[in-house]
Amino acid sequence: MEKEFNGQKRTHFYLPLPDGGRLSAVLFTPLKDGKEPDRPLPLILSYTAYECLHYETDEDGQKRIVQRVDFDIDTLTDYGYLVAVVQIRGCGASFGVRKVVVSRREAADGAFVVDYLAEQPYCDGNVMTAGMSYNGQSQLCILSMKPRHLKGAYIGKTDLNRYDGWVRNGIPRAFGSRPDVDWGETPQEHEAAIERVADKTVPVDDDPEGILLRQAIREHLDNGSQVTAQRDLNWRDSVSADCEGTYWQTLSASTYLKDINDSGAVVYLDGGVLDIFRRDTILLYHNLTLKKKLIIGPWDHIRPKWNPEPRFEILRFADHILKNVENGILEEKPITLRVMEYNFQDHRYWGENTGYYRREDIWPLHEGKRTVFCLDSHEKAGVIGYKAYSLNGITPFPQNFPYFLAVNINRKVKLYRLQRHFRFSIRVYLDFFNEISDKAFLFLVTHYSI
Predict the structure, then answer these.
(1) CB 84 within 8 A of CB 44
(2) Multiple choice CATH, 7-332, 3.40.50.1820, 3.30.70.380, 3.40.50.360, 3.40.120.10
């Protein structure tokens, strides 16, 4: 893992699609003392609906470009990788229309992008993808199309079956609207929205005045709405004209599972037991038949995971599948667990001295002691150490979905950030792995809407 380069060049351009469409693409090329590589290099791709580059105004009132890439993979150029971030059609500076998320059109575009970049003179033909959430789901889309040059995918925190991940029994359990834009209703509101979006969006290098950018954004006026879909399509067999069929089935990676497994790529799954899609990460692992690895620990969906720093695990993965480095990553036990441990002196679960790693062959583990907490209106009779709390009827619901729970070692349950109201019940499971100290555990929180 020694650094080979000490700088990078950023190029923002339009990547042409076979149907005449154009996607915003940012390429990070490594530099050595200001010079570009004298040989083609392997490439890591993030295929995303979100902005890699955007404008922010600093405290002096000056606009500056902010660069943000999943898992900070743009820093891997130092280790001899090209990194590309390509924005899907209908988003950011890309042209086109995006009626629904993770569509078959989006999948075909992504597969084309992989092979297009692999066949450029700067690339040696070896490509892997990396990203989380939407950018994890977009990788499953690409895998289902089986592009020739795709060697592997590092997939973080996303769903397998979209309905099961986002809805339970007709009640939404997850919510996401980005990168949807409220375009307004009138032509005047449309124009104002276009300018508002253009003011934050960085144009490609050959479009300094943003002329092409505004043309692309204008096409986005015909985009569909995730918010409307999540509000109205609450059943597994709900039909949408925007995807010409059953909405959830058409958009679910599980529908294309055979193609994903036939892709021949190697997959590394990255999940968190506090993530809204924690169940899906496990389901993905058990349903993928290709070569695979899994790391999971006490991490949620959004906040950064520091141990291990994801980009170094991605780097180990990339070194092996793109450069054929024999680092043993696929010879290790396939599952890595971050076990949570309470620091009684500092009263915290996070940081140093609050956990450890263990590698396993299977999940769930056939060991440990499981305690089930059912939150109800009174203490359960006949069960020692079994507390219950009322959450029946209309109960305050957290502003940021999912709800927030804190479970301490004394088996008490607290609810935090309770703002909105919603009908729901909760079960909390604690798996204890250290029977001597009774400190170390992984906990899984599952919610059921009623």
Answers:
(1) yes
(2) 3.40.50.1820
